[in-house]
Amino acid sequence: MKKQVDGKLRQEQKTSQPVTEWTGPYLEFRQVSKIYQMGDVEIRALNKTSFTIERGELVVILGQSGAGKTTALNILGGMDRVTSGSFQMEGQEITALKERELIRYRREKIGFVFQFYNLIQNLTALENVELAVQLCKDYLDPQTALEQVGLGDRKNNFPSQLSGGEQQRVAIARAIAKKPKLLLCDEPTGALDYVTGKQILRLLEKMCRKERMTVVIVTHNSAIAPMADKVIHFKNGRVEDIKLNRQPKSIDELEW
After folding, report:
1. Are strands 214-219 and 230-235 parallel, antiparallel or unpaired?
2. pLDDT tens digits, one per residue of 210-253
């Protein structure tokens, strides 16, 4: 009997088809709508929005306040659910994930960088990064992550002892230490001066180009757009225009 079972297993292994890589869009929004109910009033943050993002792209999502860009970012990051439509990553239907699966998706695949850093004030730079990776199975050494953003010598400083740009770099180190597939940045230069803002953009570009990380930057600053591979313009909850930059500009060329 055992030989027969073993033979069956061997035959199944022999005839099994090789696993093929996903060849469709890396990220895809299909007719996504998001409606918030405010009493008797419906707020349509997204209205049948569609776009794709490829693996390793640096994407800028542009739009004025209320255009729907942050809502789209929250759905990409698994922090919000769609009202209708479909959002997929590598063909997996993220909109169909149960809450526990969605937590795992956020934990293992997504890195977040926010405008106002969101660091814990009574933890050092190193401790802020260490906290972020405690629940991750595969992660980058927190010290190494800080070194990658140029803060290896400031690891024992508290956020109050760091400049705004340094705090934002800690936030980026915290995000990349998780080894995310997708790095989502919500107005990452909004609270920074011009020179520091450019330093942060160079760092995000490095993560994309050298680490092959997919980076999405949400901003209202159109001057940032030329650095991206793809620019998605949002207006009134819809994608108004999508532009591909065949030759993205150097950050040194950007002015605002």
Report:
1. unpaired
2. 888 999 999 999 999 999 999 999 999 999 999 999 999 999 99
State pTM to two decimals. 0.87
Which H or E run includes 74?
helix 69-76
List C-alpha distances in Å: 248 to 35, 138, 186, 219.
Answer: 35, 32, 20, 17
Sign of the dihedral defined by the CA atoms of residues 47, 190, 187, 35, in that order: negative
Q: Is 175 exposed, middle or buried (0-12, 13-18, 19+ CB in 10 A)?
A: buried
pLDDT tens profile 150-207: 999 999 999 999 999 999 999 999 999 999 999 999 999 988 999 999 999 999 999 9
**Domains detected in the chain:** 55-81+104-253 (3.40.50.300)
Burial (CB count <10 Å: 0-12, 13-18, 19+), residue 184: buried
C-alpha–C-alpha distance, residues 125 and 157, integer Å: 6
